[in-house]
Amino acid sequence: MKARGFTLVEVLVTMVIFAIIGIASFQVLDQMVSTKEQSEKGTAQLERLQYLMLVLDRDFQQMVAKPVRLSSGELAQNYVSNDSAMVESDSGGVAFVRSGYQNPGAILPRGELQPVIYRVRDKVLQRVSFPYVNDRSREPNVRQLIDGVKSLRFRFYVRAGDSNENLGVSSGWRNDWNLPEKLPAAVEMVLELEDYGEIRRVWLVAGGVANATEQSE
């Protein structure tokens, strides 16, 4: 008895079945790889966001009463500024001076007060810092904190005792800060990210004054 071979139709059907299985397997593998990449990207972005909050908390909780110097070199009378000439941001920002930048024995070529600017450039939130308060001749340190920024806004809370009728400033929240030689009672940040939407944070400002050695920087 002769052995019966496969017909052309049977061969074609078998090839089609294997092709379908191959395509399905590839799609499953591709989906797994894509899911893994998205998960890793999301985890990395979340870690950057957590680090950003740590940096922000550290800076705003150590804000001190010290005039900031404009990029033009002019010393402003405000301790805090969100003026566009100062922050040079694509979407909101703030500039102030923080303490707690320890330098025992002046070992490092910098002061113990640190001028800080938060700004947005090309959808990236940047932290710009300078080694000295009153010297802008040195190159600043620019750190890229998080990308995918849609907008950045700050508001400042005026204490009841700090209201100023001459400047038209009453107590409560303000979108800008123009009270000379005063610190706000609190600072609110609204950061809008492409991945997480709006993130709102409020810091109470202690209002510490720089000590005598720091004032000379």
Give the helices and strands, then pairings.
Blueprint: H1 8-60, E1 64-65, E2 80-81, H2 84-87, E3 93-98, E4 114-121, E5 124-129, E6 141-146, E7 149-158, E8 172-174, E9 186-193, E10 197-204, E11 208-209, H3 212-215
Parallel strand pairs: 1-11
Antiparallel strand pairs: 2-3, 3-4, 4-5, 5-6, 7-8, 7-9, 9-10
CATH fold annotation of the domain at 58-208: Pili subunits
CATH architecture descriptor text of the domain at 58-208: Roll
The major beta sheet can be summarized as: 5 strands, antiparallel
Mind telling me the CATH superfamily name of the domain at 58-208? GSPII I/J protein-like
How many strands appear in the DSSP assignment? 11
Strands ordered across the widest β-sheet: 2-3-4-5-6
| N-end to C-end Cα span | 105 Å
Structural class: alpha+beta
- Name the overall outline: elongated
CA gyration radius, whole angstroms: 28 Å
Order of helices and strands: HEEHEEEEEEEEEH
Task: Quote the beta fraction.
Answer: 25-35%
* CATH class (first level) name of the domain at 58-208: Alpha Beta
Identify low-pLDDT runs. Answer: 208-217
Write down the overall mean pLDDT.
80
- What percentage of residues falls in helices of 4 or more residues? 25-40%
